[in-house]
Model the fold of this input.
Amino acid sequence: MLFDFHTHSFLSDGVLLPIELIRRAIAQSYTAIAITDHVSVGNLEFVVDALIADCRLAEEHWEIRAVPGVELTHLPPAAIPEVAARARARGAQLVVVHGETPVEPVPPGTNLAAVRCPEVDILAHPGPVDADLAGLAARNGVFLEISTHRGHCYANGAVASAARQAGALLVVNSDAHVPSEILTEDLARRVAAGAGLDGEEMARALVANPQHLLERIAARRQR
Ligand SMILES: [Zn+2]
Ligand SMILES: [Zn+2]
Done:
């Protein structure tokens, strides 16, 4: 089983049409993929509408869970709750926040705004977070991301350690923008091991936690 809740199509800065990204995920034996293109207030509706259409088409014809999502990216932190709610209302089934990576000028306070917001599902590549932030994530049901993406992965060890201390849930995502970045089970396992996860923690991050997130998404769909 292979899950990935963070990928990009050419609706933002990836290179593939959403349906081709899903097709390539199927070719690499994915169980589920979320497409989470970068959005802010200007492109949110356009991106969500387009992703819903391609994810629906894929699920009608192929054996995969295809989840239309968004990645709220470089927003002023104070705007995150309102824009997350707007994405949800438009039909985004997964809300990711682009966290404070070690390699970009993401506004300080983004991580905190994300883990406080009940509409947020995943805080992506948050950089070297502490156990206090991971504790807030755990309390509010926000998953923390272990990233296989270059640059974004530099703080994976710190994220894993804070999550362990605070009981926060981890997921391993690709943040793929091009075909060569789409996950394989082997890469996901190697990156999880590199973050210091033991066998049991790895099983949770790679299978149990993604299944839990898919259940949450399915429950929302039925409402
Ligand atoms: Zn990101
Ligand atoms: Zn991303």
Notes: Residues 92 and 121 are 11 Å apart (CA to CA). The beta strands are 3-4, 32-39, 65-72, 94-98, 122-124, 143-147, 170-173. Residues 6, 8, 71, 175 surround zinc ion (ligand 2) (CB under 6 Å).
